[in-house]
Amino acid sequence: MTAPKEHRSKAVDALASSRVRTGGRIAVLQSLSGKKRWSYFVDHFLILIIAIITICCLLIWLIMHILNPAPGPKLYVALVDHPIESAEADEMSSQAAMTLHMKADDNSGLVVDDGFDCSRDGLPKLQTMLSAGTVDVIIAPKSTFARLASYGYMSDLSQIFPDKQFGKQALLPGPTDDGQDDDAEASMNKGPVKPYGLMCDSIQNQRWQPHQKKKAKSTDLQRPNSASSDQAVIGLAVNSPHMHDAARFAKFACGR
């Protein structure tokens, strides 16, 4: 003897496949009643409806993320080839965030990243981020900074910081105008000389730390050659999306 459940299922299938029912599955569903209608709905419509709802939710989620992307850092500072120690970089980040009224975090505040070592993968990383327009400020030893300026990565500071009011300007050759980008090393030191950076002793002497001003003065006496190739130079990235805040950070780093 066939079980009632199996008998009901066979009856529903027979009814759905009957030639008398010419209106399709929806017509079959409308013609059924009670438990037969629900059983037919579960067998033929429920999975499809769940799949459609899931796809719609995913599409809405993707559209919302495309139209409203997660906010990036308000200011991204790249420390290239370790112009200062990691501990000092952390202190600079917290002090600058306090002075500039920003949060020191990766999502919507100030980021000071010292992970740019050109002897490893620091330069490709920097180039990728510059192409994406995510780097605002670059601090590097003078020799490294001159190389970056010759590649065309730095902004001309003559209009941003006129009259050398925030430190001694680093006059360096920029990119050449002949379009010979295939041999960047050969074109170094051949471009027009412009003030692409500021040579601020404050970066290494930490005059941006209010509680270390006295210590900074004593350190200045130990650095008679302020124009050495190891001196840190600060500049603004050419594609910075936050040029105003980048200039504010440069003033802070120069102890102003």
UniProtKB/TrEMBL annotation:
Region annotated Disordered, chain positions: 168-190, 209-228
Taxonomy, superkingdom: Bacteria
Alphabetical keyword list: Membrane, Transmembrane, Transmembrane helix
Record field: transmembrane: 45-67
Regions of compositional bias (Polar residues) in chain numbering: 219-228
Descriptive protein name: Uncharacterized protein
